[in-house]
């Protein structure tokens, strides 16, 4: 396109009103760029910037050279340049000054009310009044309006709203407008607009009482004369004359008004003033003006405001004047047409608006004929040669004009211009309501952990979160909340969307079950509708705020912390019902406005009625703060699609898309395809009359003796059956109060779906699969069919619970799992279904007659396919490109995975025994297997080929510890096991973590040393020891030792840093409630080499009661499994003879039970005259006599003075005080330094040696 054919905008001027100059320049520049095509995406921004500076001019370039651009700004970007110029040209807003301007604004003498109202609205936007804006505009209108009578009328209104104020002022302006300017030429008349003025004393109608008139006449001689330039009274100085500097619209000369113009002596309209003795009525006369910006009463040509009547049988041209309240005829014309009509005397005086008095000869009644109808009209005869005038009353009686009370909206542009604030897409509306989410009594809070997102899109996610926060949709959360949902991020080429996954919350929400209007109810109110409009709310649900309690329920986790919704989010199960109820409350009183969920319909029997209703809806939207989306709105159309039906001036018609799948179904090519089609027909048999007779022709083709030959009679029968399946009563109207069921199916080549109510079809849909979709796994095709059905039947299923029938059973479990646990491609499809409330049920394929037929005889089109490849669910960290290529190659080379890949694509058999033995172990989780980019996934996990297992395991183990235990332990290197060394290490840990209440150890001598006893006493620690020779009684410590050994040995084997390995163990959570040892001990995660958000490193206390409860649960589980193979041993009694086990577990020495100790399952046993404490597990009751002989014990260890007993399987047990039994002999031996073994046992020679 040649740019030279367009006129360049004028350069940017920096003198005068610079802000206004810039606004006009920018608008002209954008129009020029759009017209020339320079704003296209393929035009470099640098070139666009050069064009901008070239057009702006030399002075603008000088200003441009002074600009400083930040790092995120581009001096070659025209948008950034324009923003700089705007900041330079527009003065800084001073709110106080702007409000002063608003509060001092009054209606000017020649200013119309609409202009004054617009001026106030524009100024109010600069004042940031918020929700008080409408009330302050109303108050300013009352105070600043020019007409005192209108002000008095407004003050008398008890509950004055802005809309009511506007209506009263409009009505007053229409009925009382002043005639400020009277034009000399009235030959070209485009429209009628009454213009009124307040009459001066000179030409005022004598409405007052005689007393007032006499009083006025008394003061007449003393009053100031009228100004000949403006017609009013003021000091005789040009500076105070309102006409000084003005241009007369009558003669075009200056310094006077048209009302006193000497050239304006022709009669345009009449004002009749009666004297006190006259019996005539008082009238108020308007005028005919040549203007184009006023009300259009008739779309007529120039001459149609001069109409021709037959008066007394003679044709007379009369001027139609809606401002005149009487009919006027010149005396010359009256003399020509008079027959026997007599002229009656009249005291009425006719005065023009210019103050010129006309001579009234009298009045008469004349017989008039118009369009073969006769009328008797009263005329006043004046001594003038002007054209006869037909007043308002006569014009209405002869049906020459049509009354219009409001401005007529003719174009979409005028609507957008008038209600630009309602269609402003830069702000978010806020309705004057507040919603509360109510939960069921048995609701159990659910907290989801944050999902990880790739580094590449973190900035985009942060920008979207910031945008939502700026709009007031979300806000950060610092305090604890019981409910925390997951965040799901969807990225498109030029857009990032953040979704809430409230599946758990939806299960606990109490639905309102607000009644929805049916299409039948709406259609019953549209018998005469011919003009339609639809409106769509911008981010509809977001315009409904929620209360504080509900907002906390809508908390969700992000890598940047927790946020909560302040507005109603999409995906909440009750959102559509809340939106329907709110819209009904706000718009339900407006006639001609119908609402079903988010579809607002405005209708009228003609354009006038439609426009009046549309204005009310738009004005209401403005008052309540509703924002509408311009691109989704349709205005003043004769035909409109509405919730699956087509509304026309001729009535309701079915939507062609509903039956397209059946109407265009291709003819069957084989007996198998014919059987499938007849299966669908049989399913609808109860709705189709005379089915057997209508199908007899094509049923003959199914007989074995008949060959397949498709003839014209078969085609006719086939077409008739398709028509019967897609028309009433087979195809029913959608009813919002009835349950909805969708039956869908996928074949190898296509998708099919049918929407059902009461088992009757509401709409059909089908399409073919594209080349990419044909390579999908069967489960992906089946889910794709559900997505296609929901999007095709969106107007039927959105905002309500819908049952989905599918013949693929694994889909049931897929819909019950969290989104992030599904395969990647299924995640994308499931995201598309997040806004719907679906209940998927399995149904045998042989029972899905309609969907099965449609999927195999689908329409040959893919124009309505759903694109998923531009969506990515960011809940995992992907492989690197190099690792991904290695996986692909290894997967394709692996024979087992090749067989698995084939069965995933072709579909699994119905029975496990039909599966290849090499892949039979995949059967149990077959529904979670999928293929993406030639890699097999199990949910979100990758299926590793056999050749890469060792490589992947090494990689996995390097960053993660499989041994996840809930305890924190320390590892110290000991030079020796002296008591002083042990005490030093314990004190070091006490300095970090504090003094413990209890300390548990084994029975080593270092813990029985007097230094250790002194340390324990000084620090106030209660010391416990485990049962001798029973490590299981201190199982927690023993398990910690095993774990530590495993960590150290693994690190040494893999040549890793053992301290990093230990850090990884401490950061490994046991589960979502217990968290990791670090979280339980320090209430925070510790930083590792793995990437982690700074937000996750912030302190966060895990509820202690929940931890205790969880630990108790794990102990009970351990006890339950342990008790399956263990039986309680019978209690021993005092005096029972027992055998005590030795170190090898054999029962050797015989002893006698002295008593049961206070420790659980522990007894004091006398062996050879010495007392020992042993666990019941070490004692075997025997039927033997007590041994009275004295023997030295060489097998069983003596009891230490400080031995304690611990519960066998518990980590935190009830503390039992040390035994009161004292072995004096043992103390004596210890004090005298007798030789001991390394276990602390006194070394004694056997008795048999006689030493």
Automatic annotation (TrEMBL):
CDD domains in the cross-refs: retropepsin_like_LTR_1, RNase_HI_RT_Ty3, RT_LTR
Stretches for region Disordered: 184-224, 1219-1251
One BP term from GO: DNA integration
Sequence ranges of Basic and acidic residues compositional bias: 184-216, 1223-1232
Gene Ontology molecular-function annotations: nucleic acid binding
Domain of life: Eukaryota
PANTHER family xref list: CCHC-TYPE DOMAIN-CONTAINING PROTEIN (PTHR37984:SF8), PROTEIN CBG26694 (PTHR37984)
Protein known as: Retrotransposon-like family member retr-1
Species name: Paramuricea clavata
């Amino acid at each position: 396109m040649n740019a030279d054919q367009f006129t360049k905008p004028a350069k940017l001027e920096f003198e005068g009103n610079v802000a206004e100059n810039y606004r006009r320049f920018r608008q002209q520049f954008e129009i020029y760029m759009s017209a020339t095509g320079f704003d296209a995406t393929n035009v470099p921004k640098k070139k666009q910037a050069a064009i901008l500076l070239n057009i702006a001019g030399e002075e603008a370039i000088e200003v441009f050279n002074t600009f400083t651009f930040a790092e995120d700004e581009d001096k070659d970007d025209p948008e950034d340049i324009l923003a700089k110029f705007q900041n330079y040209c527009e003065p800084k807003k001073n709110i106080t000054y702007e409000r002063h301007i608003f509060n001092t604004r009054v209606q000017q003498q020649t200013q119309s009310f609409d202009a004054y109202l617009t001026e106030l609205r524009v100024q109010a936007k600069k004042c940031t009044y918020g929700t008080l804006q409408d009330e302050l505009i109303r108050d300013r209108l009352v105070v600043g309006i020019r007409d005192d009578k209108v002000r008095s009328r407004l003050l008398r209104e008890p509950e004055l709203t802005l809309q009511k104020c506007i209506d009263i002022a409009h009505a007053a302006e229409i009925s009382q407008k002043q005639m400020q300017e009277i034009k000399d030429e009235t030959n070209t008349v485009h429209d009628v607009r009454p213009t009124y003025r307040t009459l001066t004393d000179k030409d005022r109608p004598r409405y007052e009482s005689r007393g007032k008139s006499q009083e006025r006449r008394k003061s007449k001689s003393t009053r100031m004369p009228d100004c000949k330039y403006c017609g009013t009274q003021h000091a005789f100085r040009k500076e105070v004359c309102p006409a000084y500097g003005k241009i007369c619209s009558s003669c075009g000369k200056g310094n006077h008004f048209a009302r006193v113009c000497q050239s304006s002596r022709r009669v345009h309209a009449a004002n009749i003033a009666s004297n006190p003795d006259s019996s005539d009525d008082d009238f108020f006369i308007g005028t005919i003006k040549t203007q184009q910006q006023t009300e259009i009463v008739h779309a007529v040509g120039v001459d149609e405001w001069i109409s021709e009547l037959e008066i007394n049988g003679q044709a007379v041209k009369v001027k139609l004047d809606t401002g005149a309240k009487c009919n006027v005829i010149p005396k010359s014309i009256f003399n020509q047409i008079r027959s026997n009509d007599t002229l009656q005397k009249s005291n009425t005086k006719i005065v023009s608006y210019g103050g010129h008095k006309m001579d009234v000869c009298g009045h008469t009644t004349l017989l008039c004929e118009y369009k073969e109808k006769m009328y008797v009209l009263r005329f006043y005869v004046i001594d003038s040669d002007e054209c006869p005038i037909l007043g308002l009353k006569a014009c209405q009686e002869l049906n020459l004009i049509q009354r219009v009370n409001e401005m007529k909206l003719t174009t979409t542009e005028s609507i957008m211009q008038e209600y630009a604030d309602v269609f402003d897409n830069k702000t978010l509306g806020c309705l004057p309501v507040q919603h509360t989410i109510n939960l069921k009594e048995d609701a159990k809070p659910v907290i989801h952990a944050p999902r990880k997102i790739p580094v590449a899109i973190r900035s985009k996610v942060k920008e979207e979160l910031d945008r939502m926060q700026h709009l007031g949709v979300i806000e950060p959360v610092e305090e604890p909340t019981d409910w925390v949902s997951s965040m799901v991020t969807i990225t498109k080429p030029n857009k990032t969307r953040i979704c809430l996954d409230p599946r758990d919350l939806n299960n606990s929400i109490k639905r309102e079950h607000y009644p929805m209007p049916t299409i039948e109810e709406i259609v019953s109110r549209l018998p005469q509708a011919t003009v339609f409009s639809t409106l769509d709310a911008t981010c509809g649900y977001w315009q409904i705020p929620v209360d504080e309690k509900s907002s906390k329920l809508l908390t969700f986790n992000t890598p940047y912390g927790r946020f909560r919704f302040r507005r109603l989010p999409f995906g909440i199960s009750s959102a559509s019902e809340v939106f329907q109820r709110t819209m009904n409350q706000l718009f339900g009183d407006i006639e001609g406005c119908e609402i079903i969920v988010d579809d607002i319909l405005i209708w009228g029997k003609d354009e006038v009625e439609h426009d009046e209703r549309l204005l009310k809806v738009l004005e209401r939207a403005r008052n309540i703060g509703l924002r509408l989306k311009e691109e989704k709105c349709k205005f003043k159309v004769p035909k409109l699609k509405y919730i699956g039906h087509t509304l026309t001036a001729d009535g309701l018609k079915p939507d062609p898309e509903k039956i397209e799948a059946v109407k265009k179904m291709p003819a069957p090519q084989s007996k198998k395809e014919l059987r499938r089609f007849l299966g669908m027909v049989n399913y609808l048999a109860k709705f189709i009359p005379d089915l057997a007779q209508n199908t007899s022709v094509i049923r003959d083709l199914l007989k074995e003796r008949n060959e397949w030959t498709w003839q014209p009679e078969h085609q006719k029968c086939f077409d008739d059956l398709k028509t019967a399946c897609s028309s009433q009563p087979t195809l029913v109207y959608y009813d919002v109060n009835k349950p909805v069921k969708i039956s869908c199916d996928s074949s190898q080549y296509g998708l099919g779906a049918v929407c059902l109510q009461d088992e009757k079809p509401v709409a059909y849909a089908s399409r073919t699969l594209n080349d990419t979709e044909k390579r999908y796994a069967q489960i992906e095709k089946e889910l794709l069919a559900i997505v296609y059905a929901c999007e095709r039947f969106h107007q039927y299923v959105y905002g309500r619970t819908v049952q989905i029938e599918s013949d693929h059973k694994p889909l049931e479990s897929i819909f019950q799992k969290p989104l992030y646990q599904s395969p990647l491609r299924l995640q994308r499809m499931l995201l598309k279904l997040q806004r719907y409330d679906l209940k998927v049920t399995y149904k045998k394929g042989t029972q899905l007659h309609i969907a099965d037929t449609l999927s195999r005889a689908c329409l040959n089109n893919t124009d309505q396919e759903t694109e998923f490849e531009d969506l990515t669910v960011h809940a995992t960290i992907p492989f690197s490109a190099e690792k991904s290529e290695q996986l692909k190659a290894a997967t394709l080379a692996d024979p087992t995975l090749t067989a698995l890949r084939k069965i995933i694509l072709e579909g699994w058999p119905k029975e496990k025994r039909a599966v290849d033995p090499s892949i039979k172990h995949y059967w149990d989780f077959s529904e979670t297997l999928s293929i993406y980019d030639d890699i097999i996934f199990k949910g979100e996990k990758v299926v590793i080929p056999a050749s890469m297992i060792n490589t992947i395991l090494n990689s996995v183990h390097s960053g993660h510890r499989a041994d996840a235990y809930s305890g924190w332990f320390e590892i110290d290197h000991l030079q020796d096991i002296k008591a002083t060394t042990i005490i030093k290490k314990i004190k070091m840990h006490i300095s970090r973590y504090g003094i413990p209440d209890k300390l548990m150890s084994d029975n080593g001598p270092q813990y029985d040393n007097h230094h250790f006893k002194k340390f324990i006493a000084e620090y106030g620690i209660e010391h416990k020891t485990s049962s001798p020779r029973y490590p299981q009684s201190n199982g927690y410590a023993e398990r910690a030792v095993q774990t530590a050994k495993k960590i150290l040995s693994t690190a040494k084997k893999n040549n890793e840093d053992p301290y990093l390995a230990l850090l990884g163990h401490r950061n490994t959570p046991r589960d979502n409630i217990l968290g990791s040892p670090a979280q339980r001990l320090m209430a925070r995660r510790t930083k590792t080499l793995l990437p982690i958000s700074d937000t996750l490193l912030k302190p966060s206390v895990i509820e202690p009661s929940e931890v205790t409860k969880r630990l108790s649960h794990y102990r009970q589980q351990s006890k339950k499994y342990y008790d399956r193979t263990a039986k309680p041993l019978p209690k021993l009694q005092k005096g029972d003879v027992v055998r005590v086990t030795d170190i090898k577990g054999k029962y050797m020495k015989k002893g006698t039970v002295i008593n049961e100790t206070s420790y659980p399952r522990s007894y004091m046993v006398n062996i050879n005259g010495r007392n020992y404490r042993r666990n019941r597990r070490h004692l075997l009751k025997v039927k033997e006599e007590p041994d009275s002989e004295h023997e030295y014990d060489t097998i069983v260890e003596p009891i230490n003075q400080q031995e304690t007993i611990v519960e066998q399987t518990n980590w935190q047990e009830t503390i039992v005080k040390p035994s009161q039994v004292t072995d004096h002999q043992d103390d004596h031996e210890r004090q005298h330094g007798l030789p001991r073994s390394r276990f602390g046992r006194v070394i004694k020679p056997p008795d048999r040696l006689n030493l």
